[in-house]
Amino acid sequence: MHILVVTAVPAERDAVTAATAERPECLTLPGGFVLHRTVRRDSAEGPYALDALAAGVGPAAAAAGTATALTAAALRERPYDLVVSAGIGGGFAPGAPVGALVVAEEIAAADLGAESPDGFLPVTALGFGTDAHRPPENLVAAVAAATGALPGTVLTGSTVTGSTARAAELLARHPRALAEAMEGFGVAEAATAHGVPVLELRTISNPVGPRDRAAWRIGEALAALTAAFADLPRALSSRSTP
Ligand SMILES: O=C(O)c1cccc(C(=O)CC[C@H]2O[C@@H](n3cnc4c(=O)[nH]cnc43)[C@H](O)[C@@H]2O)c1
């Protein structure tokens, strides 16, 4: 199994690779992107190579980094089997409290579209592209069972929500939303273009709502990310084929 995990920042990448005892090998790609590769040969589930990439904050940086890694792998004739967008995120109350792990049933672009006098119009209503990706159901179910992750919608936005009113507006449009982050949709667009299945995993560092950066529980969320990736090989080997 060959997996690409894309995070925003190096602290998230390092939390992912900390799930193995191994020291990562670094591989530099065009564009200056650096993969941190770990291989689990001890895993009962078979060899498991994981390339972790900190591609930057936001959907554009995430898409650029993911597409670069996928193209490099395809040219080396060692394509990825799975892409995972991973990191910390905001949690919608009451479904996703701080410390919880969320797996995306749907990876939705929250702010891709147009405003109108009648409210927000998604890009699909304008006649363009896509506004959501749905990861394989069997994979989502297997990850939820193996890790205890809560399945729900994970929103991608270029702006962190900072008010109760905006949180309510997002929930009204996406009633199954459990988490908000800034990269998943960009990762999913690149993975889909390459025909590779995609997942998004978020550990909740803060509630979605009025901005209070001092209250973000980043250490707790990063520790939960490491625990989730320790369980991931079991989840991937246990999944039933569609
Ligand atoms: O300062 C640090 O030590 C640190 C360590 C790890 C991560 C960070 C970040 O600031 C990560 C930014 C990343 O987090 C996602 N995020 C987290 N909460 C929210 C939210 O409420 N709404 C949207 N995005 C959120 C997001 O994906 C950012 O890219 C700092």
From TrEMBL:
Tree of life domain: Bacteria
Encoding gene per record: mqnB
The protein's role, per its UniProt record: Catalyzes the hydrolysis of futalosine (FL) to dehypoxanthine futalosine (DHFL) and hypoxanthine, a step in the biosynthesis of menaquinone (MK, vitamin K2).
Protein family according to the UniProt entry: Belongs to the PNP/UDP phosphorylase family. Futalosine hydrolase subfamily.
Enzyme class label: hydrolase
UniProt entry tagged with the keyword Cell inner membrane: no
Start and end residues of each Nucleoside phosphorylase domain: 55-217
Keywords carried by this UniProt record: Hydrolase, Menaquinone biosynthesis
CDD domains per the UniProt record, alphabetical: futalosine_nucleosidase_MqnB
Lineage: Bacteria, Bacillati, Actinomycetota, Actinomycetes, Kitasatosporales
Reactions this protein catalyses: futalosine + H2O = dehypoxanthine futalosine + hypoxanthine
PANTHER family for this protein: 5'-METHYLTHIOADENOSINE/S-ADENOSYLHOMOCYSTEINE NUCLEOSIDASE, FUTALOSINE HYDROLASE
Its EC number(s): 3.2.2.26
Pathway: Quinol/quinone metabolism; menaquinone biosynthesis
Organism: Streptomyces olivaceiscleroticus
MF-aspect GO terms: hydrolase activity
Protein's name in the database: Futalosine hydrolase
UniProt entry tagged with the keyword Hydrolase: yes
